[in-house]
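Side project, low priority. Logging it here so it doesn't get lost.
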Amino acid sequence: MNRHPFAALTAAALVALGAPARADNAGVTAAPVLQVPLGARALGMGGAFCAVATDASALQYNPAGLARLNAHELNFSYIVGAGESTLQNLAYAAPTPLTGISGNGYTTAAASALLSQSGTIEVNTLRADGSLGSSQRLSAGSDMVLTGGYAERVGMTAMETKSGTLNIDHFFGVAGKYLRSTLVESYHATALAADVGYLAHSPEAGWSVGASVLNLGGKLKYLQQADPLPTTVRGGGAWQGGVPSVHNLIAAVDGDYVIDEHLWHANAGVEYFWLKSYGLRIGYRFNYGSQGGLTMGFGYRWKGRVLIDYAYDLGDLLGNAQRVTVAYRFGGVPPSVRGRQRRPFIETSPEHEEMPDLEQRRPATDDIPRPRAVPRERLQGAPGWIY
């Protein structure tokens, strides 16, 4: 019997849907699953999410955006591909009470697990005389990506303008990922990668800008040759306005460049929400070949806790056109706690410290002003509008 591993690998790669590989740059980079746009909200806006990044899917677009979450979020996305291919992604993001490395608060930790299946493939074995020996259907390929990330606010800037003071928050985030890829149930490869991101946001002006570098790291090697991961540089801007209690509008643009493929993309999108509950999205993806074009989607928010999003990519002719994301938010944290900063540490020298005279310095109890009790705000789950 004579099995042909290279032919099987080639065939498996061709049917590995759940990945945005295209004929004009096929084989340049490995792990095309890392280029799949995750999250129905992001895809509905054409993928223009680098400067928006206000939910758990920020872990895949710009990890710095994780710091903008004000509640715990459990997020599940399901992607329907062509044929038998499917992709699922489960993510969790949690604000922490820590002030962070820089001491400026807004710390968040997140993790996600992405699983993809590329359907099945028929593998034939031949006898010595060239006749068919046996035939069996095997899994064409599968990928598992485990990601962990952390973000915090690293600084604040106040800008004086004619209309007043604009406060700008600066966020920074990092993420690490482990990738395991399998072809035709026989060939395995693993790789490690890292992401870094930056995001600046001005609450008064409503604008934000972001930049990230994704998939920095090693290579995937199945047999003899190792292929690089799709290292991508991404950047963009967004603006948000409206009356939060009635309507809210977000407009965003961004672009990315895949270094090893020498390929650029551009994305633009708009999101509109009415009464905090009903949302519509439209976007466009430029220079994606057979997978670019118009995208559309909608969203529904129930009491700010349950989030349901759907998106459809009208230009994706190869599959993976539909996204469904369901998220649950809980344990909301008020901005006063999120923005808590580290108190400065004042070091004193015992030999130079003067001990106070307790008898002379102790004030009379009758002269001490008694502060009035201030009722403490009781947090009621997640804020009603978190964007």
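Brief comment: The chain has one domain: 5-338.
Revisit when time allows.
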